[in-house]
Amino acid sequence: MRFLTKTRATLLLTMICWIGFNASMSAQEIRWKLSAADDFSVTQRQTTNIETLVEKRKSILGSSVELLAAWKVTGVENDLALIDQTIESIKVNIDNPADNTKSVAIDTASETKPAKNSRGLLKQLKPLVGLVFKLKMNPRGEVLSVDVPHETQKRLDAIPTDSWLKALLDPGKLQAQIQSGSLSLPEATLEKGQSVVIEPTTNPATVVAAPLGKRKMTYAGQKNIDGTQLDVFSLSTAEKFDAAKASPPGETTTTNQPEVATFEWDGELRFDRNAGHCANCWQQTTITTKSSHRDMQMSTAVVVESVFTLERK
User: Fold this and answer.
1) How far apart (Å, rounded) are the C-alpha atoms in residues 299 and 75?
2) In Å, how far are 54, 69, 256 from 295, measured between CA atoms?
3) pLDDT in tens, 195-244
């Protein structure tokens, strides 16, 4: 149960704080063009599959989180867009084939009463609906700051101190997560086929959702997708993962602490230059780890797929 709680917290934190990660662009002429009163619908869906092998016993846990939010541009100051992000609904599904009684399926927007084992989580997530966070974003799509309005803070203060949501929604952690997830790309224009290398993150709190090795974004040029000309960037791992380089100098791992064995990242980002905003982005991160516990060997494969869509209302 502790593992499931930690997984839920990691997934939801990634969803709520993920905005700046997929918005950033690299080419000089490709920029966000936002104006006061612009309205957007934002959908972020993340699926996670965890396969664990202990000796010869295999267990599988699948989960998905879908966050629906509204973006409203309240103004533009010194080329910075001021955006109100409002959480509209959250869907969570946790599939446990080994024990269906531990599976969870909730939708905060649904009027249908969920199964008994899902009601506790639904009760915890309901307070998130309607929360507003104020963002500042530059023309490259980098979120520079996150502010918490007074009304939102009052609702956050009402969450019990020992609740995992309390730590999840801590304003300082929210901002740190957004900054660690943002892709800040070069100002120079990328010609078709040119790439930019993204250095690995140094934030250990986001090990599942954030990359562990160098990544690469390659400009693939313009493509006509469903009748719309979009600038396309392919996402990939820049180099083979090296576990020795990933560990800080002088740091050792305990026998109970998983060691990352492999890391892979790929995906595609599509930007609508004429509309002046990111259209959608999908990413897939695959991480395998190995560890030992009580003389038993354990290996885990975590596959996280994230799909982001933004549509102008």
Assistant:
1) 49
2) 11, 46, 10
3) 988 766 544 434 344 446 778 889 999 999 999 999 998 989 887 777 66
Residue 174 phi, psi dihedral angles, 5° rounding: -60, -50
Q: Locate 201 and state its tokens.
A: 């993150």
Cα distance between residue 45 and residue 68, in whole Å:
9
Q: pLDDT by residue (tens digit) across 34-47?
A: 999 999 999 988 89
Q: Is 111 helix (H, G, I), strand (E, B) or coil?
A: coil
Q: Is the distance from CB of 260 to CB of 247 less than 8 angstroms?
A: no
Distance separating alpha carbons of residues 26 and 4, to the nearest angstrom: 37
Number of Cβ within 10 Å of residue 246's Cβ equals 13
Alpha helices in the chain (DSSP H): 2-17, 19-23, 116-125, 150-157, 164-168, 171-181, 243-246
By mean pLDDT, which of 16-20, 153-157, 244-248, 286-290 is the weakest?
A: 16-20
* Residue appearing with tokens 């801590």: 170
Closest Cα to residue 32, out of 159, 157, 141, 193?
A: 141
Amino acid making up residue 297:
Q
Dist. CA 185–CA 140, nearest whole Å: 8
What tens digit of pLDDT does each residue of 98-120 get? 677 678 899 999 999 888 888 88
- In this structure, are residues 47 and 308 in contact, taking their beta carbons and an 8 Å threshold? no
Spacing of C-alpha 205 from chain mean position: 13
- Domains, the chain, ordered by start: 2-312 (2.30.230)
The torsion angle over the Cα atoms of residues 7, 197, 274 and 142, rounded to 10 degrees, is 60
Closest C-alpha to 67, from 41, 49, 48: 41
Q: How far apart are CA 265 and CA 212, in angstroms?
A: 9
Structure tokens belonging to residue 206 = 């986001």
- Residue 276 to residue 139: CA distance in whole angstroms: 10
CA distance 193 to 233: 10
Two tokens at 38?
């612009």
